[in-house]
């Protein structure tokens, strides 16, 4: 089954992953700074918030993203993405209890984005693409502050994925303004960043630095 979402915005550029922050006004302020800096793809991921707070945060972030012409993807929770009208969902190995990627694709429908974590596994990527994934993500490419125990993937996996699959490829894990150029040179369409963006003293300026790397590539 070919990937099925029709998007007016290309899956490319900086992909901001939100920090675990249970204080909604602060989270919105952090993300808005990134959006002002040019980020157009945001993934809401909060591993510690209870369900009601996750819904409130995701809904509020969706409004902010819409106001800036950006897209919001919900991590881990296909049903929350559908419920609040987010632009898509991103799923990992353990995010579909009792379900499958095909179930996620069906739930999201043809117009929402399905992203899939593939770690360092090209076979998983093949399954994801066949199930209708709109993008595939590989990592951790570098040691990650937010996920120190994450399995590692090499830049060769990005190169091979670009060669084999017709969907955009995302690099994730420990990506900074210093090493992002290597990931782009390997062929990644998007770079997912968390710590090096949201821990920056000036988030807007840091977002602009990341965006500049994409401009320099073309």
Structure notes:
It is built from nine helices and eight strands. It has an eight-stranded parallel barrel, surrounded by six helices. It has one domain: Alpha-Beta Barrel (TIM Barrel). Helix 1 packs parallel to helix 2 (51-67) and helix 1 runs parallel beside helix 9 (203-217). It has helices at residues 24-36, 51-67, 78-84, 101-108, 122-130, 155-164, 180-185, 195-198, 203-217, and strands spanning 13-17, 41-44, 71-75, 88-91, 113-119, 135-138, 169-172, 190-193. The longest helix has 17 residues, at 51-67. The chain starts with 12 loop residues before the first strand and ends with a helix. The protein has 218 residues and is α/β, with parallel strands linked by helices.
Structurally, the number of domains stands at 1
Strand content: 15-25%
Terminal-residue CA separation? 31 Å
Rounded mean pLDDT is: 93
Q: Outline, from the CA principal axes?
A: globular
Tell me the name of the CATH class.
Alpha Beta
Q: What distinguishing features does this structure have?
A:
218 residues; alpha/beta; TIM Barrel; eight-stranded parallel β-barrel; 9 helices
In summary, what is this structure?
It is built from nine helices and eight strands. It has 218 residues and is α/β, with parallel strands linked by helices.
Topology:
Layout: E1 13-17, H1 24-36, E2 41-44, H2 51-67, E3 71-75, H3 78-84, E4 88-91, H4 101-108, E5 113-119, H5 122-130, E6 135-138, H6 155-164, E7 169-172, H7 180-185, E8 190-193, H8 195-198, H9 203-217
Parallel strand pairs: 1-2, 1-8, 2-3, 3-4, 4-5, 5-6, 6-7, 7-8
Helix pairs in contact: 1-2, 1-9
């Amino acid at each position: 089954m070919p990937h099925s979402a029709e998007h007016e915005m290309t899956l490319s550029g900086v992909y901001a992953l939100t920090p675990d922050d249970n204080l909604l006004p602060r989270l919105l302020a952090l993300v808005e700074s990134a959006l002002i800096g040019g980020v157009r793809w945001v993934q809401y991921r909060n591993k510690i918030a209870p369900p009601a707070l996750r819904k409130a945060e995701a809904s509020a972030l969706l409004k902010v993203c819409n106001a800036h012409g950006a897209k919001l993807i919900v991590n881990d929770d296909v049903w929350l993405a559908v419920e609040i009208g987010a632009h898509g969902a991103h799923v990992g190995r353990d995010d579909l209890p009792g379900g499958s990627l095909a179930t996620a694709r069906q739930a999201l429908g043809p117009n929402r984005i399905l992203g899939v974590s593939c770690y360092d596994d090209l076979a998983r990527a093949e399954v994801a693409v066949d199930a209708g994934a709109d993008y595939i993500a590989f990592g951790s490419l570098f040691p990650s502050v937010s996920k120190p125990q994450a399995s590692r993937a090499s830049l060769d996996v990005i190169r091979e994925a670009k060669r084999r699959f017709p969907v955009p490829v995302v690099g994730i894990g420990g990506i900074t303004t210093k090493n992002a150029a290597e990931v782009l040179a390997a062929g990644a369409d998007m770079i997912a960043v968390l710590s090096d963006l949201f821990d920056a003293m000036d988030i807007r300026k840091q977002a602009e630095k990341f965006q500049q790397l994409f401009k320099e590539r073309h």
